[in-house]
Design goal:
Blueprint: H1 2-20, E1 23-24, H2 26-36, H3 38-59, E2 64-74, E3 77-79, E4 86-88, E5 91-105, H4 109-175, H5 181-216, E6 225-226, H6 243-251, H7 255-275, E7 281-293, H8 306-312, E8 315-323, H9 331-397, H10 403-437
Parallel strand pairs: 1-6
Antiparallel strand pairs: 2-5, 3-4, 5-7, 7-8
Helix pairs in contact: 2-4, 3-4, 4-5, 4-7, 4-10, 6-9, 7-9, 9-10
Length: about 450
């Protein structure tokens, strides 16, 4: 019975620990970060605002309708609204009106404004994607920084295990009188040095985890456990990447470039809308009005009832208005010139974005070739240093070399391991970035 209770308790404790230590993949980290990032939310609000501006520009095609009513009390000497004679008595009046106005032609200003606001709306949609991709790249960088320091900690543990074995061996040899006490001090010094290095690497790993947690905006978390990655990830290394093909693919979908493209088109439409103010405008208007006056009396001196006055005093009108701009201090022409400058500036900004994209891809392709060569050489160096260290270890155990020579061989092996790890992860990040610009769903973001 006690055994059964113990097993059940152990199972529950293990389940709780496993749940609390969720293993995070890169995709899960990116998804969480996008969902909780405040800057992404701000960009979404900008998109909502531009969407409403676009909708309102469409609604501006509708006629404008307004109504008014007033209740006026006059005191002392004032003009009678009914007869225009001055009277010295208190009275009140009511006026009611309903007016409508419809633009028939205004130099296509409203249509071009609709088109401009539509492209601004599309641009802000691309801004959301761009913000998500930038965040995803920051998360990926922080993610692989953790992987790097995890590798450093693993290498440090391996070095520490070797130093501990050597220390135990020397201690036994000293005890048997086969080695001097000074050798034990040297072995202890190496052991303590490896312990310090392990502590330093663990501290750097903790800091790297904090960076990722902050990028994810994971409040209340102090630690994060990442899922193990396959060691075969670096097997497929593509060196002959076509820069022109990569640029052509990236140019068609990168949000930053597409957003600027939309802004160029929007600036052109805004320029055309501004130019429309130079043309005559034609509008149609209509209205209805009525009134009630307390001074409006019949032949018997009785105030005519409200209902009767409301019917008798009504008036209706309809008309058209043609407005021809002749001179306004040249302000309309100035606005057109300013908008033309804004259009040219938007086109220049697009060329800047295209240039920066090309240069970025050019650097990625060059780094890819360099990192592949470095990775292959560093892998060979690890194998070579491993053989050299194994030989040095055997020679040390036979007393053919001293502890300093063994320590140097061990350090060279450790440095080679760390360099290979660093180059491998840099290559992984670089190739993932190239895959992204090749249009592959690296981050699974719509």
């Amino acid at each position: 019975m006690r055994l059964k209770t113990y097993i059940t308790s152990l199972f529950l404790i293990t389940s709780v620990v496993a749940f609390s230590q969720k293993l995070w993949t890169l995709e899960a980290c990116v998804d969480y970060a996008i969902e909780h990032n405040l800057q992404v939310k701000n960009t979404t609000y900008n998109n909502d605002s531009s969407k409403e501006s676009y909708r309102q520009s469409v609604r501006d095609l509708l006629p404008t309708v307004s109504g008014s009513a007033d209740y006026t009390i006059r005191y002392g000497r004032s003009a009678d609204p009914q007869t225009n004679d001055f009277v010295n008595t208190d009275f009140f009046s009511n006026n009611y009106s309903l007016n409508a106005n419809l633009d028939l032609f205004r130099g296509f200003q409203k249509l071009n404004t609709i088109r401009a606001s539509k492209f601004i709306y599309k641009a802000t949609q691309e801004d959301i994607l761009q913000e998500k991709f930038l965040l995803a790249f920051r998360v990926m960088s922080a993610y692989y920084d953790i992987k790097f320091f995890e590798g450093l900690v693993a290498n440090s543990l391996e070095q520490l295990e070797i130093s501990q074995g050597n220390y135990d061996l020397v201690a036994k040899q000293v005890e048997l009188g086969l080695m001097a006490g000074a050798d034990l001090y040297e072995a202890e010094s190496n052991l303590l040095g490896d312990k310090l290095l392990l502590t330093q690497n663990r501290n750097q790993l903790t800091n790297a985890k904090l960076v990722l947690i902050q990028e994810m905006n994971w409040t209340g978390a102090s630690d994060i456990q990442l899922q193990e990655t396959m060691g075969q990830e670096m097997a497929a290394m593509e060196e002959g990447i076509s820069l022109d093909s990569l640029y052509k693919t990236a140019r068609d979908f990168v949000p930053l470039v597409k957003s600027q493209e939309y802004r160029v088109t929007a600036a052109k439409k805004q320029m055309q809308a501004t130019r429309g103010s130079l043309y005559p405008s034609l509008s149609l208007f209509a209205g209805y009005g009525t009134s009630y006056f307390e001074t409006n009396v019949d032949q018997n001196g009785e105030v005519i009832p409200f209902k009767t006055q409301f019917t008798d005093n009504q008036s209706k009108f309809v008309g058209a208005q043609l407005n021809i701009p002749i001179s306004s201090g040249w302000s309309n022409h100035s606005r057109v010139k300013q908008q033309k400058i804004a259009y040219m500036q938007a086109k220049n900004n697009l060329e800047i974005q295209e240039q920066e994209l090309y240069q970025l891809l050019q650097q990625l392709v060059q780094d890819n070739r360099a990192l592949i060569a470095e990775y292959e050489q560093s892998a060979k160096q690890v194998e070579s240093q491993k053989i050299a260290f194994d030989i040095a270890q055997k020679r040390y155990e036979k007393g053919l070399i001293n502890a300093l020579e063994l320590f140097q061989a061990k350090n060279l092996y450790g440095v080679a391991q760390n360099q290979n790890l660093q180059v491998g992860l840099r290559l992984k990040v670089n190739q993932s970035t190239i895959d992204f610009y090749n249009g592959l769903p690296i981050f699974n973001i719509n």
